[in-house]
Amino acid sequence: MNHALLPSKNGATLPKKYEAAKVALLECNRIDECKEWGDKAQALASYAKQADDKEMEKTAQRIRARAVRRCGELLKEIEKGHGKNQNNGGGAPTKDLTRKEAATQAGLSKDQAVQSIRVANVSEEDFEAQLESDSPPTITNLAEQGMAKGVPRYEQLGMTKKAFQAGMYFRGHLADMAEQTTNFDPQDVVDGSTPEERKQILQHIETIDQYLDQLIAKL
After folding, report:
1. Separation CA 149–CA 212 (nearest Å)
2. Could you tell me what percentage of the chain is helix, strand and coil, using 3-state DSSP and rounding each to the nearest 5?
3. pLDDT tens digits, one per residue of 89-98
C-alpha cells in the first residue's frame, strides 16, 4: 500500500450507510413523535421502552470499536522506522511515510494511534466475541488487552479465558440490574404485576439470592 499521500480524516468520505444512519439519528433526536400523540398512556409506554433500549448505544460502540481497530490494522501495515527513500521505475526518489507520519497526516493524535494499534493487537476471535456480547467493552478496555502484543488480556492477568469472559459479562449485567433498581419503585413493580407475575418475580429473586450468597462468600 502506498502511504505517500494519505488523506486527512477532516476531508475523508464516510460510507453511505454510515452517513444515512447519522442523518436518521439526528432526525430522531430533533423530532419527538411521541410528544404529539393524543394517547398519553401509549406515549408513556413508548418513552419507557426507549429509555430501557440500549441497543443503539451498543451498536454505536461496536461501530466505533471496529473503526478504531481498523485504524490500528492499517497503521500496523507500516513497519516501524519505515519511510526510507524509494525509487520507483528509475524516477525521482520518493519517501514513504513513517507510521507516525501516516497517523498524523490522517488526523490521529499520538494517543489515538497508540490506542488503535493496541486494539488491533487483540485477536480477532476475542475482539468479536467481546464486541458482540450483551455488554461490549470500552475502547480503553480493549486497548489494555492489546498492550502486550500477542498475549491475551486474560493471560496477562493470570486468568483463564472462561473466567475472564464470565467476569466481564457478569459485571456488565450486574451494573445494568443495579441501574434498573433506581428506575422502578418497588411498590410500582408489585402494583403493576399480576399475582402470577409476582410469583415469577419471587422465584427469580430466590434464584438471584442463592447465586449472590455464593458470590459474596467467594469475594
Report:
1. 36
2. 65, 0, 30
3. 444 444 577 8
Contact yes or no for 130/142 (Cβ under 8 A): yes
Distance CA 131, CA 62 (A): 6
Could you identify the residue written with the cell 419527538? 32
| Rounded (10°) angle between helices 55-76 and 124-131 | 160
Residues 143 and 119: beta-carbon distance below 8 Å: yes
Whether this prediction's pTM lies above 0.90 is answered by no
Q: Does the pLDDT of residue 207 top 80, yes or no? A: yes
Contact 121, 143 (CB under 8 A): no
Helix (H, G, I), strand (E, B) or coil at 118: helix
What is the C-alpha separation between 40 and 34, in angstroms, rounded? 9
* 83: phi then psi, degrees, rounded to nearest 5: 135, 10
Query: Which among 124, 120, 139 is positioned nearest to 77, based on CA atoms?
Result: 120
Sign of CA dihedral 174, 53, 142, 182: negative
CA-CA distance, 39 to 118, in Å (whole number)? 51
Q: Hey, what's the cell of 90?
A: 528509475
Query: What does the pLDDT look like over 129-179, one tens digit per residue?
Result: 898 888 888 999 899 888 865 667 777 777 888 888 899 889 988 988 888
Rounded-to-integer distance, Cα 52 and Cα 180, Å: 9
Report the 10 Å Cβ neighbour count for 143.
22
